[in-house]
Amino acid sequence: MSRTFTIASAENKVVGGHFTGSAPWNAAKKAARKLFTEGKGKHSELRFTLRETTADSKKKEFQYIAIKHVLPTPRVIKRGDMEYTVSVEYKVKSANC
Q: Which whole number is the average pLDDT over 35-43?
């Protein structure tokens, strides 16, 4: 079952969006990428809150810490005829520990 989430608050003031995943951390990884690409400033670590927006849910909020890690050597990924270069990795961990 797919669940939906939105960014309720973040350190860099980016809010909103529509992220889906079977668990909150799946949506958190997608939200982290948006926070780093659309946010202003040079952050390498951000705290943010996701709110569940799935119909009939309790609208629970989940806090996360996102870390942007620049890879020392870019990875090349091939899918069919296309080739992608990945130079940044995003890691997400729960801030509720």
A: 77
